[in-house]
Amino acid sequence: MGILEEIEFATKPQIVLAQLQAAHSVGVARGAVQTDAAHGSNTAWRDGLAALDLSYAGGIGSSVNVWLPGQAPKQPGPWEGYVYPEVCHR
């Protein structure tokens, strides 16, 4: 006994998007999707929700850049390097 051959690997966001697509295809009423930062930081996940025309609200990690529709992302400032304090060896 093992895993059926027709079972394919999918990440949690991929599984949930497939479930949302299936619900949409049978006429389940739309609602807003709420998500945590683990899914909210996933661009493909957010794009999938947008493709289904679903509104969503959720957390994102601090490393994720966001911008308003129709605008370009903010360009990073010049790199200033790191400044380390002097170390006095005894």
Characterize the structure shown.
The protein is mainly alpha-helical and 90 residues long. It has a domain at 9-20 and 31-61. Helix content is 30%, strand content 7%. It has helices spanning 12-25, 37-40, 43-51, and strands at residues 33-35, 56-58. The longest helix is centred in the first third of the chain and has 14 residues, at 12-25. The termini are far apart.
Furnish the topology, listing elements before pairings.
Elements: H1 12-25, E1 33-35, H2 37-40, H3 43-51, E2 56-58
Parallel strand pairs: 1-2
Query: Helical percent range?
Result: 25-40%
Q: Please, how many helices?
A: 3
Strand content: 5-15%
Mean pLDDT: 84
Q: Classify the secondary structure makeup into a structural class.
A: mainly alpha
Strand order of the largest sheet: 1-2
Q: What overall geometry do the principal axes of the alpha carbons give?
A: flat
The parts where pLDDT drops under 50 for at least 5 residues are none
The biggest beta sheet, please? 2 strands, parallel
Oligomer: single chain
* Number of DSSP E strands: 2
Rg value: 21 Å
Question: Which descriptors would you attach to this protein?
Answer:
90 residues, mainly alpha, 7% strand, flat
Short description:
This protein has helices spanning 12-25, 37-40, 43-51, and strands at 33-35, 56-58. By secondary structure, the chain is mainly alpha-helical.
